[in-house]
Amino acid sequence: MYDWTVLNQTVSETLAGDAVGAPLFVRWTAAAALSTPELKPLLAEMSAYAESWLSARPRRIYATGSSDAGHLSLALEYANGQSALLAISLAHDHPSMNLVILGARGAIYQTGSQVTARAGSLAGGADEKRQHAAVSSTSQMVAVIDKSLFSKQPVSLSPSGDQP
Amino acid sequence: MSSQQFGVLLISGRLTHQENYALNLRDDPRCTLVGLSDEKDVPPERAQLNKQFAEDLDIPYWPDLDEALAREDVHVVSICADPERRGRIAARCADAGKHIYVDKPMTPYLSHADDAVAAVERAGVRSQMFSSNHQPWVNQALQVVESGELGELTAIHVDNLFAKGPNGTAVLGAPRRAVYPPVISNFVDAKAELYAIGVYALGFVCMISGRAVETVFGSTANYFFEAHQRRNMEDFGFLSLTLEGGLTATITGGRIGWASHPAGGSNQIHLIGAKGSLFLSANRPTLEIYNADPPWTPPEIHPRDPMGFWRTTQEEVRGQPKRTLAPLSNALEGRSDASYFIDCIVEERESGMNARQAASLTEILLAGYKSAAQGQVVKMPLARDGDHAQGTQA
């Protein structure tokens, strides 16, 4: 089994090698949460990874679903025109994921049950400073997700990632 | 009409999906292709393509649609006219008492969609828009949901991304400025791909969930092709939907380029239920095949079909199928969408993709375009205050 930090490392190296051209769209669906309180932080973490892969800040997000129902979706549009659709749901003892990254000249695909969320680390891996920044970023994104879920509307973000 | 036998009239010929639908209808032993027709005032090039296809099939070409529809040996009409003309022709054929099999999407115009539904229901004929809803792997998704194995369905995520066209030519770096009403037309080198391909994914969501869409958030992009960008038509788009009962869905639809998938494209469904989830793909389970043959290369670019839309043009440039993946399939499962429609006529039942459902998909897609242009969530239904789409040939 591998976790999302390993996935991130491999995806990042692949993108850095210009294997698919400029990354443009991330479609990532994961049945990965062990409990409903994990759903929003994990969705925010997926957003942090997508942001890293696309090298762009989201300019607008729109969230649907509910933690009570065990499923959340997040649509993101980025400043440079890229976009992403992320979704997280309960693993129900059978974690699985499907990842598609579309690039200008190619695509990356990963599907299966051998990559799970993680065991206690957030985006950025084991490095303490990066992990602290990731936790902070994740908290901000959870707040934006909550705002979109409550308003049932997209939420615009400033270039720095904050709500304007 | 003789028992269980149907005379089929084709509308529009080469360089349309009629190239495929006509062959599927001809292969059904209950059908006989009786002729090909179109509106009298079609441009000369369209008339020529129609004549050519009639000659290909060795059937007569009747240039006057009214005369063709007056024939008593015509029971079913397969309509593949340009998107802008398709809906009004569907209504006209239904008014003439013919069963209608129509290319997807049925029409980009709300008024034409409403007219087609009214005509079909007034005439009491059967109707079906082409879809992929009856493919075995999609039916498997429906069966799993109906079995209750996943518990109550909470979300559906569907991708329909076609690996065709010479990608890598779009200018990148800024968000697409979506326009509303959108440009919906078939150019030689571009289509509105959320409309043309996303309709498949949307069809899956509506069939599998059996619920009405309540809100639509959409986004469109120009990621891959200069031609789409030049014509102000998206090559990629997605929708985020809420449906009755709190169900959510997301779909993608787009054309991502020849080299972006080892087979025809990424066609997949991810079902999320209260008790579990299931991922299904048109390409799974599959054999993976590697050998000493030269690697697959994209076909030469055909000047009349650079994106690889049509069968006959791809045959002319000797386009070869990709052979890396060989999805497992049961020959008995390979029933065509056209034969499913003939079943509906024979068994006197409604198709799950009848004119009313097709009109609903048009409305959802248009709501997606409206959302993409306005940056807001759009509530269904759309107001009947305009056609919400602009064509170039209507």
Automatic annotation (TrEMBL), chain A:
Q: What is the protein name for this chain?
A: Uncharacterized protein
Organism from which the protein derives: Caldilineaceae bacterium SB0661_bin_32
TrEMBL record, chain B:
Q: Which GO terms describe its molecular function?
A: nucleotide binding; oxidoreductase activity
Q: Which UniProt keywords apply?
A: Oxidoreductase
* Residues annotated as domain GFO/IDH/MocA-like oxidoreductase: 139-278
Report domain Gfo/Idh/MocA-like oxidoreductase N-terminal positions.
Answer: 21-128
Does the UniProt entry include the keyword Oxidoreductase? Answer: yes
One matching Pfam family: GFO_IDH_MocA_C3
Could you tell me what this protein is called? Gfo/Idh/MocA family oxidoreductase
